[in-house]
Amino acid sequence: MPQPISAPLLHSLAERFGSPLWVYDAAVIRQRIAALKAFDTVRFAQKACSNIHILRLMREQGVKVDSVSRGEILRALAAGYQAGDDEIVFTADLLDRETLSTVIEHRVPVNAGSIDMLRQLGTSSKGHKVWLRINPGFGHGHSNKTNTGGEHSKHGIWHTALGEALAVIKAQGLQLVGLHMHIGSGVDYGHLSQVCGAMVDLVRQTLAAGHDLQAISAGGGLSIPYQEGGAVIDTAHYFGLWDAARKEAEALLGHKLHLEIEPGRFLVAESGVLLTEVRATKNAGNNHFVLVDAGFNELMRPAMYGAFHAMTLLPRDGSRRASRPTVVAGPLCESGDVFTQEDGGVVVPRELMAAEVGDLLVIHDTGAYGASMSSNYNSRPLIAEVLVDGTDAGSARLIRRRQTVEELLALEA
Ligand code: LLP
Questions:
Q1: What is the percent of the chain where pLDDT is above 90?
Q2: 37-262 under CATH 1.25.40.620, yes or no
Q3: What residues does each domain of the chain span?
Q4: Cα 182 to middle of ligand 1, angstroms
Q5: Pocket of ligand 1 contains residue 122 by CB under 6 Å
Q6: Which fold has domain 270-410?
Q7: Residue whose CA is closest, atom 23 of ligand 1?
């Protein structure tokens, strides 16, 4: 297990690059990739963290990439991923016109979540490689907002429409590569067994409809322990379940089948922290507030899902102080700009070391869906990102500079 980035190094990074700041640790990312090496392909769901330098690191480690927008395809290309083979796959439920041209131009295989996508692609790009993303009729997520299966989800081709999708593939002269399922973020083993069973069933139906397959994808959704004592994924067990499903499918097909996995969070969440500076403290009735210079425009997860992120205070003077129940909030002009809250916006004070203005607060496990979900709300420029690859200050490099307000205004000039 890589050691967490030391407090002195975090202090020096805040001094050098300013606050707030995203900091990633390359060693953690490499370690998480290694934990999944049993899979034939690890495909990074870059929506979790799409910085080009993180994508380069992934590619150097043999990880392929999933893109969900034209922007993410161009990012993958900029990071050195090769077009025209399966290094990049485009996954979506619709193809806007610009993205349709881009996938055709770069011959990016399309993982289709709707039959209309197949029709539109087939009309202009015969022989294009496609995957089918199937909604098996059930899903599971850490929040309703991250459940991507079942009849309330817009994602994937409904399982009973598989036959129609296969008929369109045949009629349009598309080339079927594989079947894909992703039922949500934060999948548990019970649902996983159900997904594996559903996958074998779909392979059987595909074969019966006269189609062959080269690959299946397990999707992503592997959770990480955000809270102390939270479940840690046993990757060998995870692989074992999928490998058994793959073998059943191979027996049906009579040949080998490639097994992919498509995690986002698992590969990067624990590599990242959000560094933020305490700028004010105050009391309101029974609540003690610590106000920091990062807001939900940087880290949206607590406001969006009531997500828990562990926090550590790094006192400016290195002292140790007693802890107290603390509500941590940001600078935005909106009441929901609180990092210690539950789903539904209920503020939950957290036991934290007493903070003083000028201290640093480290918000942990923010490498996934942190920077990539940031916005310019309240006309706040996007903050900088730093990648650390070692233990000393010299091993840190700026991988995205801080945006300026002038750049924001220029768009409207
Ligand atoms: N594959 C597909 C098709 C997906 O839709 C997603 C996530 C993934 C893979 C990666 O899922 P992961 O392994 O990261 O759980 N913003 C939310 C997560 C939304 C995930 C959307 N799709 C959060 O902060 O928890």
A1: 94
A2: no
A3: 37-262, 270-410
A4: 9
A5: no
A6: Lyase, Ornithine Decarboxylase; Chain A, domain 1 (2.40.37)
A7: 369
